Amino acid sequence: MTSNPLLDFIDLPQFNEIRAEHVTPALDRLLADAAAAVERACAPDTPAAWEDVVQCIERATQPLVRAWGVIGHLNAVADTPELRAAYGENLPRVTRFWSDFGQNLALYQKYKAIAESRAFNTFPEARRQVIANALRDFRLAGAELDDSEKPRLKALQERQAALSKEFSDRVLDATDAYSICITQENELAGLPDSARAAARSAAEQAGLSGWRFTLHFPSYLPVLQYAEHRPLREAMYRAYVSRASELGPEYAHGKPEWDNASNMAEQLALHAQEAQMLGYRNFAEVSLVPKMAESLQQVHTFLEDLARRARPYAEQEWQQLRAFAAQALNLPELAPWDIAFATEKLRQSRYAFSEHEVRQYFPVDAVLAGLFNVAQTLFSITICADHAPVWHPNVRFFRVEDRDGQCIAQFYLDLYAREGKRSGAWMDDARGRWRTVNGALQTPVAYLVCNFPAPVDGKPACLSHDEVLTLFHEFGHGLHHMLTRIDEISVSGINGVEWDAVELPSQFMENFCWEEDVLRPISTHVDTGERLPRALFEKMRAAKNFQSGLNMLRQIVFAIFDLQLHSDFDPAGKVSVNEFACAIHTQYHVVPLADFSRWPNTFSHIFAGGYAAGYYSYKWAEVLCADAYAVFEEVAQKKSGSVLDAQTGRRFCTEILEVGGSRPAMTSFKAFRGRAPTIDALLRQYGMAAA
After folding, report:
1. Average pLDDT of the residues of the chain
2. Which end of the chain is less congested by CB atoms within 10 angstroms, N or C?
């Protein structure tokens, strides 16, 4: 075993041994090895053949990909000053390598020669897709640019990578920095016991008396939903929506460098310059090249159509909420920090249950067991606890076995929020499925990360129904990655899948959380052990489309803002990013936006998460997933049985999950559904008319 754990690729990462000082020496070697392999593949006497070019490159770059993935993962889930510095110092080196790779004309010509060779037509479909994707990516990386222009494009990409990291760091720092300590218990009126206990524990850990609340979502959301003390709701709301901006609480306390305004403007300017250099009118056009959507106009039409359909429902929902707040809550003027509170009260009034009541029925272990049972029933797999070095004591590790008991994949599960961990939920690739040059099979490994409330006072952590949905969602991504049967690593699992189709398996899995024969069996009341009462489930189902119009418009605002920001916005103009966001919000939403809201400053999806000009993908893929799930509903109705139909699950696995990115997503969808997708199933799920 090597003395540097980042260079140990025999099995799983040695998270218990990795330190910041290992990063630079490991990358010294890995970057050198990868560069040498590229040079060999480009040599004039190297045959333009799969084995001599593609496999040569993969053999040398995969160790770099894996090691850098571990470093990036730790930077997201176990941030320390030392690791952040090491990551930041090496990010330009790694970015530069991949920029050089993408702009390498000699390598591009080798791939073109492979595509034009007689042998190409004999390749399996997956290998042909690898070459097609590579040629597209070379063009997008600037391989066809004049040599005099390439350094400028490299500099743009390197700076863009640095800005993306900087954006994410500022959001994390601004989130971690804020807290409010309550010392008068009467100011906690309305808060659930679990939220109080968590706040008490947080105060004790900080050496404070009373109850400490932070901007991490498990602490923040209960305050907005349940706290009757309006000043507490206002303080938390103002701090949350102004994070990483000139209005954020951290700005007034000596951290103006956390303001992301200039970062966003510079990123947008760099994107625009990149698009211009590549021959496109704007960055949105660049972003769409590797996606399912065929044009900006098609995406705009799609979003506008959804907005048109959702608006009447949203207007009615907003008026109902305002009337309820005025009559039942003595809130004639609904302030932004009142909306979540009033919404929860209206939900309770209309459907006679609260999210807190539901939460008690979903302790984490029961939900995990139910989730695993769904996957095992549908996809003929077995999920078992396993052991591996981890980065935090709360992290769990599992393996996935096929029907013959063979291990086909593994995954880490990091469920709970904590300081030093990026907010949100995501699945990431620890390693992909790959048939190596010597014929050995590398099985896939996934990271599944969430930010749920941690256990407190020895009681199990419990999930809200929304958090159950989140867990199923991320596990859907994981299944896409882990159940692939493709041996070419660049198109196995989620690799090579069009960005606007990658959410299909994740959003598909969410549907099972609304099925009685799935949800009730996974519920176990944390105190009594009782199942979720059928009456309570029926109330939840009745409330499924509660404020669906408002929720739809919220996502459409994000998507249209993102798309227009990368197509119609001038970052050097007189209008700021936040002013532009406000204009989009005013045009498409029915709920007024607070004048102090700076939500774009923490919009990490598009400024730090790879979704630039691609946030529409959530709605696009939701159409696919609703239509795909309708097959399970149709089978259940026909057989008068459960949606957990193993035969249909097997087809979904074969046509969607197993093929990964080895063929176009539309081809995979049609192979499963038998036709192109329609919007009808999505509208039906939202309780909206299809007309």
Report:
1. 96
2. C
Q: What angle do CA 354, 355, 359 make, to 5 degrees?
A: 125
Using a 10 angstrom Cβ sphere, with 0-12 exposed, 13-18 middle and 19 or more buried, the burial of residue 349 is exposed
In angstroms, the CA 321 to CA 349 distance is 11
Q: Do 58 and 128 fall within a single domain?
A: yes
- What's the whole-model pTM score? 0.94
Domain shared by 203 and 140, yes or no: no
> Residue 445: enclosing H or E segment and its boundaries?
strand 445-452
> pLDDT by residue (tens digit) across 293-306?
999 999 999 999 99
Structure tokens at 604: 């990490």
Domain end, chosen from 129, 144, 159, is at 144
CA distance 685 to 627: 10
pLDDT per residue as tens digits for the range 570-625: 999 999 999 999 999 999 999 999 999 999 999 999 999 999 999 999 999 999 99
> Is 357 in the active site?
no
Domain boundary among 235, 256, 277: 256
Structure tokens at 70: 């571990």
Cα–Cα distance for residue pair 626/605, rounded to 1 Å:
23
Count up the domains in the chain and report the number. 3
Residue 11, pLDDT above cutoff 80:
yes
One domain for residues 135 and 189: no
Cβ atoms within 10 Å, residue 158: 19
**Contact in structure between 390 and 77 (CB atoms under 8 Å):** no
